[in-house]
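Hi team,

As requested, here is the filled-out complex form for the fe (ii) ion run. I kept the field names the same as last time so the parser does not choke. Let me know if anything looks off before we queue the next batch.

— J.
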Amino acid sequence: MHRTQVGGALLPVGDVNAAVSAFLRTSPPRLRWDVDFDFDWSGADANRLTDGERSAVEFITIIEDHLPGYFALYEKNFPVDDSVDLETFTHNRELYHFTIRWAQEEDTHARALERYQVAAGIAGADELRVSLAQEGHKTFDLPYTDAVQFFTYPLVQEKATQIYYQHLRQVVGDPLLREILVRLSKDEARHFSFFADMVRLYLQRHGDAVVGPIREVIADFRMPLADTIRGYWRWALKIADTARYDHTEAYDHLIKVVNRAVDAKSDKVDELISFVTACRVLQTT
Ligand SMILES: [Fe+2]
Ligand SMILES: [Fe+2]
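And here is what came back:
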């Protein structure tokens, strides 16, 4: 993998440490969960699901299963090796405490959904492994130029995913699947909080300098894998019939973060807020 430190301003390492420490404190050992020990897999039953609900499970399994691709973005853009100077390394090493824990949690999401599909009889283990690999080995890239963009994109994506899982869990017919979706949405909410903290700190430290890069993320926003999954748009519309799926619901949360970060708003910040508000109505899945 080619590693090149991303451009744009970075946060002081003390800020990163504060955000990472706050995130790690949100998962005390007694609240952590595990695929092998926390569910009664014998209760999984796809006969309780509608076709649309099964389809939604298949869809989110693919999205969660792409974790190696998401994780690689941070390894690539925030290298933890001798390709960067010592100060940058120190920053990246601090961030790594987050990414490694986050990646572990996301990998658990992928395993939980895969296990559910097999236990519920949606798919056979071998056939599912092969079909996940077909999507999983495709490259996912976010060709951003500024560090802050690697926190803005997941701020929206994590919140959108959390909201979607909450909508979905309200309709699904299998209690075990509901339980899984509760676990997942709680984790996505914690992930969102970390990225929201980071974006807030970027705005507070760097002000107008990060407004343009944040705006660009929203201007081009597409959910992960929208460009690589075969038949993505048709599928996204289909699952929206089962439970509301609209990533722009997450934009309200970005607006809140911006509002809270900056007391006296510059023209650039005001313009950013109106822009995101306008996209909230215009963009669809
Ligand atoms: Fe997840
Ligand atoms: Fe997440």
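Two things worth flagging: The chain is about 65% helix and 0% strand. The mean pLDDT is 96.

Thanks,
J.
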